[in-house]
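If your schedule permits, I should be very grateful for your opinion on a structural question. Thank you for your consideration; the sequence and its tokens are set out here:

===
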Amino acid sequence: MDEPAELDLPVEGGTLRVLRFGDGPRTALAAHGITASGMAFGALARHLSDEWSLFAPDLRGRGGSTDTPGPYGLDRHAGDLCRLAEGLGAGAPVALAGHSMGAYVALLAAARSPELFDRLLLVDGGLPLPVPPGADLDGILDVTLGPAIVRLGRTYETDQDYVDFFRAHPALGPDWNADVEAYVRYDLTGPEGARRSKAREGAVRQDGRDLLASGDRFAADLERLSVPALLLHAPLGLLGQEPPMLPATVIERWTGGSVDLPAELVEDSNHYTILLGAAAKTVAERFTGLA
């Protein structure tokens, strides 16, 4: 896989590290998941034609933007996406995609400033999730994110130890490939003997609580969405097995009736391999064919 160019682009209060894949004249912008980085889109970018440039920012508190100051929260990330779209689009709308938490961020951005975008692809995210009133949001994050949260509080003796941690992940190990390894190695920082993830646990938890508590806001934005949109969802979840990230009842609620949001199940994928596995080709095809 070709190494992306690394850019530092201005946002409110600092800069974001942005990975640029390709150098074509058409512009796409993609937002990653809650503990991920822009490197999550490497496989998708490789399946885009030469006419595209894909810009994948490391959101605040992750990747090369780990030191970009907060506050965090999905509105903050959505504002950053809009700022990037204004600069990268040079007056023309850009194609927008988001995966997992990034799908919610992309939804907020598209609803806030629809003139900046000509399409919206939601990948295994973006729909309001059922959360019981008064629920312990941090407890839900611990249960649902599982190994993704655990690794943020650990250090690793070597880079290979960190890679091996991911290779043991049930959603990634069986489908291990060069894209997954590049994604994992990009996330490493810290001195020799104490290597760790670039993602800040405080940012992850603040964004996760915001996501779980914002169902009504997501619902309102889906109702008023005015750009062409598509939901792609995986049959398997964060641990490579059922249940999926998005329950069938939630998908049924939001992909019919008053909301113009078609949906497609991407077979033979889980929450991670829908982007980092063979399914990335399908995601790229649907993204470029959407508008």
